[in-house]
Amino acid sequence: MKIEKPRVAIQGIRASFHEEAGLRYFGENAQMIECNSFKQTFERLKNREADYVVMAIENSIAGSILPNYTLLLDYGFPVVGEIYLPIQLHLMALPGVKFEDVKYVTSHPIALRQCVDFFDEYPHLKIVESSDTAACAKRIRDEQLTDTVAIANSLAASLYGLDVLERRIESNKRNFTRFLILTHHDNIEKKTVNKASLCFQVSNKVGALAKVLNIFADEGLNMSKIQSMPILGKRNEYNFYVDVEWDEQKHYDAAIRQILKYTHNFNILGEYERHDDDLSTAPKPRKVERVRRYINIRRNV
Predict the structure, then answer these.
(1) What is the pTM of this model?
(2) How far apart are the first and last CA of the chain?
C-alpha cells in the first residue's frame, strides 16, 4: 500500500540526521514526527500514529547501535528498506562567538565518537552528551549559549542561525550511517527484494554457527553483516543478527529452508531492496583549511 504523504517517526528533531535520511528515502512530502527516543518511534508506529520508522542501526566509525537490535526483535515490525547517509559533522556556535571563549562541546554520543581526533587537539573542551545533534544546535540558539559549541550537520546550522566555526571535523571523511526503514505488516509493498535481515539462535556446540554460515556461502549469498547480542538471563546464549544479499531469489529460498534445521527462534526481520549507491565513488570532500580566525588557540603554549 503506497502512502502519498507518509508519517515518518524519527529520533530527534528537525534538521537531525534522521530527518535528512527520511527525506532522502521518502521525498519532501513526508511528514516527520519528532520523538525523544528510538523506543518512542516504535511506540508511535505501534499506536498507528506513524506509518514508518527511520532508525539508525550502524555507523562506519562508531559501529553498531546495539540497543536498536533489541527493539527490532521486541516490536517485530518488518524492515522494508535501508538507506546509507554520508555523515558530515560541523562545529557551530552563535554568531560572534570566538573559539577561545568556548568551554563546552555538545552533541549526540555517536557523533562525538566520530570526532575523537578533533577532541585530542583541544583537550580543554568539556564534552556534554545529548539525545540529538540538532537539539544541541537548537539549545544554543534558544538559550543564547556563548560558551558552548554544537556538533551537527549544515541543516541544523542553517535552521537555527548558527555560524559554522569549522567544517568536517569527523575523524574519517568516508563516514556513513546506515538507517533501516520499518513499517506495519499491512504497509508492505510488493516489489523485488534482494536483501534480508535475519535473527536466530544456534546451539552452544562446536561448529553450530559455522554450519549456518557455510549454507549461506554454498548458496552464493553474501553475508554483509553479522552482530551477536547476549540473551538476557541466559549464559552463553546469543541472538545472531545477520544481513544477507543475493542475486537470485531461489538461492535465498534454498538457504532459508536449510538453516531452519540448525537454528531455533528463527526470525526474518525484513526482506527488502538493498541500497545500491556505490559509496566508494562518492565525491571526495574538499579539504577545508581550519578557520583560524575562530580557532586560534596555539598548541604547546
Answers:
(1) 0.86
(2) 63
Percent of residues, the chain, with pLDDT higher than 70: 92
The whole-number pLDDT of residue 113 equals 93
Q: What is the 3-state secondary structure (H, E, C) of the chain?
A: CCCCCCEEEEEECCCCHHHHHHHHHHCCCCEEEEECCHHHHHHHHHCCCCCEEEEEEEECCCEECHHHHHHHHHHCCCEEEEEEEECCCEEEECCCCCHHHCCEEEECHHHHHCCHHHHHHCCCCEEEECCCHHHHHHHHHHHCCCCEEEEECHHHHHHCCCEEEECCCCCCCCCEEEEEEEECHHHCCCCCCCEEEEEEECCCCCCHHHHHHHHHHHCCCEEEEEEEEECCCCCCCEEEEEEEECCCHHHHHHHHHHHCCCCEEEEEEEEECCCCCCHHHCCCCCCCCCCCCCCCCCCCC
Beta strand pairing status for 52-59 and 176-183? antiparallel
Distance CA(138)–CA(154), nearest Å, equals 13
Query: CA angle, 121 as apex, 88 and 126 as ends, to 5°?
Result: 85
